Amino acid sequence: MGSRKVFLALAVIALVATAFAQGPQQTTMSPATTATTNACQSTFNFGSGQTLFNFCVSSNGNLVQFTSPQGFEHIREGQVGEGYGICDRTANAGYFDYADEGASGNWNSSIVVQSGGANTFPLKITRTTSDGIFTLTQVFSSNTSERIAKIAMTLKNNSGVSKSILFLRFADIDANNAHNGDFMNEFDYGFDSAWGYNSFAYGLALSTVPTGTSHDGRVWRTTSAGPNPCNSSLNVPPTPFFGDGSAGIVYGFTLAAGKSTTVTVEYQRF
Predict the structure, then answer these.
(1) Average pLDDT over residues 145-174
(2) What CATH number corresponds to the domain at position 36?
(3) Domain count for the chain
(4) Residue 85 half-sphere exposure, CB side, CA atoms within 13 Å?
(5) In the predicted model, is pLDDT for residue 209 greater than 90?
(6) Which domain holds residue 264?
(7) Residue 47 zone, left/alpha/beta (φ > 0; ψ -120 to 50; rest)
């Protein structure tokens, strides 16, 4: 790992350690406190052959499938892991949902708002933690010409006190149909991105949209569970890394009482 990566990773740890118009359809999903899901609530299909770009989103706001080009899947292989994690460093409390790779069990039901019905944009999924302290709102969209799935994530502090936050987006990347089944990919990361790929094949990258919020890319060795948002430095290998891996973006910020912060992650085939 280069000194530049180490410096920023340490800096992040040190720092923190629209409703839609026209009568949108609103659906309250089954409580996520009882089970995780990798089922597709909405699926988005574009192009064919080399231009094919398909992805799907669960009712809990997990991006659990990303196919591009035709015949090459990069997430929905084996144990499906993708999602989000929050660490309230002020209270030493964690909240997360990574589909098959675990959930913290302290979330209320998801609320899906989708004016055009399933499989259409705009798509907004809102979840509040069971203690009422945080609300996470995710808005999904796409850039079909660039083969990008975009997730704008707004975290609101509903409490009456300021909170020191670590917030992450995580994906168990299994590029190129899990490298034809052996789950071995090349991984690396930078300040704004993290990615998995195979030489002479395709890859999938997570990148943050430019933001003033402190952040860093991250790579993990894949285990049976996703990263602990309050200890996301576990299972981080030296990079570049070849193996069964995962990738993500970790953000660090302070969230004042009643305030919110928005960060945006893009998934892109390359």
Answers:
(1) 98
(2) 2.70.98.40
(3) 1
(4) 30
(5) yes
(6) 3-269
(7) left
